[in-house]
Design a protein that fits this description.
Largest sheet: 5 strands, mixed
Distance between the termini: 52 Å
Strand order of the largest sheet: 5-7-8-10-9
Organism: Pseudoalteromonas undina
Protein name: Histidine kinase sensor domain-containing protein
Strand content: 5-15%
Keywords: Kinase, Transferase
Number of helices: 9
CATH class of the largest domain: Alpha Beta
Helix content: 40-55%
Number of domains: 3
CATH superfamily of the largest domain: Histidine kinase-like ATPase, C-terminal domain
Shape: elongated
Radius of gyration: 48 Å
Length: 451
């Protein structure tokens, strides 16, 4: 497999880092140059001083000029001087005087002011009509770059952070887009949409993630085929098993109708055959139902009902079937729920109630209660059986699982009742939780949504 994604990331990161240093350099240079120039108000003030000094010098009043300079120095806390700009040769060749006429005694107001000097620079403002200049130390208040340190810190810290954030966003989007597609497809596939595929969503992209998408599509194709084959097998199995079981039931019913003609031993064998036939039928029906719930994940919330009415019917049937055990019910006057399914809820509660009665000793009791818990109803079914080891409390909802060592009894249970109950409750958005009582026995708590 070529490492296309690796080289893409190297290219993006390398380009981003180079761009970061380039932008930082450009930004620092730009802001440094921009902040090195005098402001318009400072330039105007310096030019105003130059004009005042030139006017006084033009009048020839040296004392007034001296007083003006003294006042300026005291007012701005700087030094200033009026100086001639010509040079007096003391020795050497005088033929090149033009090359150094107008020698600068300070900086022009049009020049940049370096931001790293410890002291304010000296400014020279030449007079227009005289070979003299106002040479003045730049007042601290006019010195540019007062915000340079903060600006430089921002450019060196926040600008790289911003660039790195943008680079991270590019990398995140480049990597997370296919991952999101994979996540969406996985969720759809787990919800029962076995036709979902991912590779076509990536277009012309070719890298490791694309290969992963292709592998996912191959896996989805194989799993969907297996599930389809399993569904066909279940359908065929349902038909093939129900037909001979029906014939067996008819045959045993006919024989039972004539059992007086048989000996006592044959009658007992016939009854056992009939009983086992019913058990096999129940096992087949429960297995097919469980398989349908697991594979199809149906949502059976289609009607409204009263939980109290449903519980009373189930309790009455249970009392008739288990006359040697007491059932104590604490139910409200009514408990209405909407968007549910009475068949799924009723079968789930019946399986849990039968399980509690099956493992409750004779002359003991099973407690049933129903309480309003906000947006749900809490139904609790508690038996007085041996309980279940803590590490098996979640395992008991697996198909065909029975804790023989702790809840053993001679029953006709195949270990499907609680598994069916949990799947049926999930189909109506309800839940069931198993806990051991401190006083002994197992407590099943059902949470049924009101809407």
């Amino acid at each position: 497999m070529t490492r296309r994604l690796f080289w893409k990331l190297c290219l993006i990161i390398g380009t981003g880092v180079v761009a970061m240093f380039y932008l930082i350099n450009v930004a620092v240079t730009h802001f440094e140059n921009d902040m090195s120039m005098l402001s318009d108000s400072s330039r105007a003030q310096l030019l105003k001083w130059q004009k005042q000094a030139e006017d006084i010098l033009h009048q020839g009043d040296i004392e007034a000029l001296e007083q003006w300079v003294s006042n300026l120095q005291q007012q701005e806390n700087i030094w200033a001087v009026i100086a001639r700009a010509d040079v007096v040769e003391l020795a050497g060749n005088r033929n090149h005087r033009y090359e150094y006429t107008g020698y600068n005694l300070g900086r022009s107001i049009d020049w940049k002011i370096h931001l790293y000097f410890d002291h304010p620079p000296v400014m020279q403002l030449p007079f227009t009509h005289n070979e003299a200049s106002l040479v003045v130390q730049l007042p601290e208040r006019m010195r540019p770059g007062s915000l340079w340190n903060a600006t430089r810190l921002s450019l060196q810290v926040f600008l790289p952070m911003l660039i790195l954030v943008c680079l991270s966003i590019v990398l995140y989007r480049h990597i997370m887009h296919p991952i999101r597609e994979m996540d969406s497809a996985t969720r759809a596939f787990s919800s029962g949409d076995y036709s979902v595929r991912v590779r076509k969503q990536f277009g012309s992209r070719k890298d490791e993630l694309t290969q992963l998408a292709a592998t996912f599509d191959l896996m989805a194709e194989r799993i969907s085929e297996q599930i389809m084959h399993q569904r066909v097998l279940l359908t065929d199995l349902s038909h093939e098993l129900r037909t001979p079981l029906t014939r067996l039931d008819i045959a045993t019913d006919n024989l039972l109708a004539k059992q007086h003609e048989f000996s006592h031993a044959n009658q007992a064998k016939l009854e056992r055959i009939h009983k086992e036939s019913l058990h096999i039928r129940k096992l087949v029906e429960d297995t097919l139902t469980l398989s349908w719930l697991d594979n199809e994940s149906p949502q059976l919330r289609v009607e409204s009902l009263d939980i109290v009415d449903l519980l009373e019917i189930l309790i009455e049937d249970a009392r008739f079937e288990y006359p040697d055990k007491r059932i104590i019910a604490q139910l409200p006057s009514q408990a209405l729920i909407e968007n549910s399914n009475h068949r799924a809820l009723g079968q789930a509660i019946e399986n849990i109630l039968r399980n509690a009665l099956r493992y409750t000793p004779k002359n003991k009791q099973v407690d049933i209660s129903c309480h309003d818990s906000g947006n749900k109803y809490r139904i609790t079914i508690t038996d007085q059986g041996p309980g279940v080891p803590e590490h098996y409390l979640n395992t008991i909802f697996r198909p065909f699982f029975r804790v023989d060592s702790s809840r053993s009894c001679n029953s006709d249970s195949f270990g499907l009742g609680l598994a069916l109950a949990q799947r049926q409750l999930h189909a109506i958005a309800a839940e069931v939780v198993a806990n051991n009582n401190a006083t002994g026995g197992l407590s099943m708590t059902l949470w049924v949504p009101k809407k």
